[in-house]
Automatic annotation (TrEMBL):
It comes from the Bacteria. It comes from Paracoccus benzoatiresistens. SUPFAM superfamilies: GAF domain-like (SSF55781). Residues 625-776 form the GAF domain. Belongs to the autoinducer-2 exporter (AI-2E) (TC 2.A.86) family. This is AI-2E family transporter. Keywords: Cell membrane, Membrane, Transmembrane, Transmembrane helix, Transport.
Length: 792
């Protein structure tokens, strides 16, 4: 067969560029059509959008009533009656306040006139603008004289009187009623829409799912998240506004400002309008305080009250009630407010935040619109390691150092090396040939050296200066191999092990002889190459022949961790193979024998241990029905998470017991007649959760030195492990619900929360009492410069 001809280099195909241009043009046309539709259809779309947002706020109440036995029609009727009653009562109170205030306003005219005259008198004195004003007056007079000279023969102006046509009483009434009828009609349409949406919520959800199409799981998650976020946002906004309005009204009453109920209500309503609302709500009470009090005390007290309330609301109440972020950046909120105001006017400003949250959720779950999440989201567009890498490429090591210090402040030096530092080097190794220029490589090398030196200076190890190195890290080939070795050496020094670094060089007998490894207990060879086997095998063989008593650890940083196993380790002639800084530290500590000295045994609190033993003594673990029930529960957990095995473990005084499993497991059995699988103390799993009662997640057991040699896990063919504590209401850990898989696997945050929920249900099954509350989810890392505190 004749091989195909290679593509011509003289005539490259322009198809990709044309395709990108067509895509961009199509996107712009679609965006223009959508914006035009929003603008032209605002008469229909604005009431519909308001109705949907109100239904989001009232939906939880209707759902609660339906769940307690009421029909949907009755639940909607009661909800709307409650809302209308509250609004009517509030409107009646406000109307009375307005009527009373309107009757009092004429009495304040003299006070206002006196204050204005007083201000005018004070401003009549000579000021710094008086000379400029006189100059302007002089110029105006001269211009008038010049113009007058040229108009001597002009005809004097004639007075013209326009007599308007008589207007009928009906037309006059319509002119007065038209501005009032439009809001009333809009409110009526919104009310009808809200009732229909609440009555037919399920059908609307189905239609939206049909419109979204594609993956029904993803579409369902998108609708649930949008509904949850907007409902909570509106509820928290209402709570924040009410907590602002009540002290506002009471403070105005104490100061003596008339109409304090009216101004408190106005403040609660106006704060629904972002940015502008709080300013407008403050104008009215300040103006009235100016009119009422002949002096200035009332104005100053009112201004101080508003200032204090704004500071407390913005810095205490809102962060406390809102909690975590919606994921919207401040820039996107301001841009969205500007856009929706331009399209829909003041109503668009009120609706801008909820509508933008909807767009963010749609962009998160629909890959075709993922650009929306990038544009609107508050999460950094680049990961921290990518930002550090970019700063080094841009020759900005100072900014890279600041990012590194932020990461160290959130965790530790070793965690930074393990999670960010090695990723930077890994990305540099990938781009070394394909993308980087010589200048880029130099910037990365110099910048990374500066960054590592800064970290060593800021976080020195507490070791004697003359301590002989027990661990030597040798770079395999590149500068990044040496920098990885420096990270590991510093991590070991922080752990109390003296360590040194040797520069890269050729794999020759002369080079190996000059490494000075006398006295070193462990030698770590650092390689970032994707195919380091030949070089690693030769260097290992030469080092072992010259220093046979030294333990050799291969740091194959560029090789996927699932490709590192015992066979590869044996083929390379090493004592261990590691893929990360954290794993290397733990492995070296074990090889040097420091683990036994530094290890702190998991001490069970005597009171907690007694409570656990008392609880488990009352649980008939040998009962066949209970065993079958727990096995069924484990089977369900294994099916839900799609793992090979799910195991339920209970902690007894002398050992751990498998009291439920999704399949038959090998292992020693208890000799008390119950026939339960025993976990010996050296292979315990649930005891690892006793320290902080937090879930345990080990994506790759081979990369965890403490678990890699666990006999039980090897017998169960375990490669990945996830465990959540089974806790009583008082927090005492009874055992663990474990997920075990035979391949590398990691659970995301939502899956870990679900595993904790299942473990809590399991605790209730065992004890018959309410389980301990779940731990609070970790707050998302959001920059204070771009994050907006609104509900998650």
């Amino acid at each position: 067969m004749i091989p195909p001809l290679p593509p011509s280099r003289a005539e490259p195909s322009p198809q990709p560029q044309q395709f990108d241009v067509l895509r961009l043009a199509a996107a712009l046309v679609i965006a223009a059509v959508i914006i035009a539709t929003l603008y032209l259809g605002q008469v229909v779309l604005i009431p519909l959008a308001i109705a949907f947002l109100i239904s989001f706020a009232l939906g939880p109440l209707v759902h609660w009533l339906v769940r307690h036995g009421l029909s949907r029609i009755l639940a909607v009727s009661l909800t709307m009656a409650l809302v209308l009653t509250v609004l009517g009562a509030l409107g009646a109170v406000v109307a009375l306040q307005v009527q009373s205030l309107s009757a009092q306003l004429p009495t304040y005219q003299s006070t206002i006139r006196t204050k204005i005259e007083d201000l005018g008198t004070r401003m009549q004195g000579p000021g710094f603008l008086e000379g400029a004003l006189q100059t302007v007056d002089t110029v105006q007079k001269e211009v008038a004289e010049v113009v007058g000279e040229g108009e001597e023969n002009a005809v004097p102006p004639q007075r013209v009187r326009v007599i308007p046509e008589p207007v009928s009483p009906l037309k006059t009434a319509m002119q007065w009623l038209a501005p009032l009828l439009a809001p009333i009609a809009t409110a009526g349409i919104v009310l009808v829409f809200v009732v229909l949406i609440l009555l037919d919520q399920g059908d609307l959800r189905d239609r939206l799912l049909r419109i979204l199409g594609g993956n029904i799981y993803r579409s369902t998650d998108a609708l649930e998240e949008a509904s949850k976020r907007i409902s909570k946002y509106l509820l928290m906004q209402l709570v924040v506004n009410v907590t602002y309005a009540i002290p506002m009204g009471l403070g105005l009453w104490a100061i003596g400002v008339p109409g304090w109920i009216l101004w408190g209500t106005l403040a609660a309503v106006m704060r629904f309008i972002p940015y502008v609302g709080p300013i407008l709500s403050a104008v009215f009470p300040l103006s009235l305080a100016f009119a009422v009090d002949p002096g200035w005390n009332m104005v100053l007290l009112t201004a101080g009250l508003i200032l204090v309330l704004e500071l407390v609301s913005n810095n205490v109440v809102e962060p406390l009630l809102y909690g975590s972020s919606t994921g919207l950046s401040v820039l996107s909120l301001i841009a969205a407010a500007t856009f929706w105001t331009a399209i829909w006017g003041p109503v668009g400003l009120v609706l801008s935040t909820p509508l933008t949250v909807c767009l963010l959720v749609v962009g998160r779950y629909l890959p075709q619109l993922s650009i929306l999440e990038t544009l609107l989201g508050s999460s950094p567009a680049l990961s921290r390691q990518t930002r550090i890498y970019q700063r080094l490429i841009a020759n900005d090591p100072e900014d890279a150092i600041d990012l590194a210090e932020d990461a160290i402040g959130e965790a530790s030096v070793v965690d930074f090396y393990n999670d960010e530092g090695m990723e930077v080097l890994r990305q540099a190794s990938i781009d070394y040939i394909n993308n980087a220029r010589a200048e880029h490589r130099l910037r990365i090398a110099n910048g990374m050296d500066d960054l590592l030196q800064e970290i060593r200076d800021e976080h020195p190890a507490d070791l004697p200066e003359d301590a002989a190195p027990r661990v030597v890290c040798i770079a395999g080939k590149w500068e990044i191999d040496r920098q990885a070795g420096e990270m590991l050496a510093h991590s070991l020094q922080l752990d109390g092990l003296p360590a040194a670094v040797r520069a890269p060089g050729s794999i020759t007998s002369r080079h190996v002889a000059g490494l000075e490894l006398e006295g070193a207990e462990v030698v770590v060879l650092s390689f970032f190459s994707r195919e380091p086997d030949a070089a690693a095998r030769n260097l290992t063989r030469r080092i072992r022949s010259r220093w046979p008593r030294a333990k050799i650890v291969l740091g194959l940083w560029g090789v996927p961790s699932d490709e590192l196993d015992d066979r590869r380790r044996d083929a390379l002639g090493a004592d261990a193979v590691v893929a990360s800084i954290g794993e290397a530290v733990r492995r070296v500590v074990l090889l040097t024998g420091e683990a036994e000295k530094a290890a702190v045994p998991v001490e069970q609190d005597p009171q907690a241990a007694a409570a656990r033993n008392e609880t488990l003594k009352d649980v008939p673990l040998g009962d066949q029905d209970l065993r079958e029930d727990l096995n069924d529960y484990a089977i369900r957990a294994a099916d839900v998470f799609d793992v090979k095995t799910a195991v339920i473990i209970a902690i007894e005084p002398a050992h751990e017991l498998v009291i439920g499993a999704s399949r038959d497991l090998p292992g020693p059995r208890s000799a008390d007649g119950r026939g339960l699988v025993l976990l010996p103390p050296h292979a315990a799993l649930a005891a690892r959760l006793l320290v902080d009662a937090h879930p345990l997640m080990v994506p790759d057991i081979e990369r965890d030195p403490e678990l890699a040699d666990n006999d039980i896990l090897r017998a169960w063919s375990a490669r990945a492990l996830a465990a959540a504590p089974v806790r009583q209401a008082d927090g005492v850990v009874l055992g663990a619900l474990c997920l075990i898989h035979d391949e590398v696997r990691e659970l995301d945050e939502e899956e870990v929360r679900l595993l904790e929920t299942l473990a809590a249900e399991l605790a209730e099954r065992l004890t018959g009492e309410e389980a301990a509350p779940l731990r609070e989810p970790e707050e998302p890392v959001v920059s204070a410069k771009v994050g907006q505190q609104v509900p998650e």
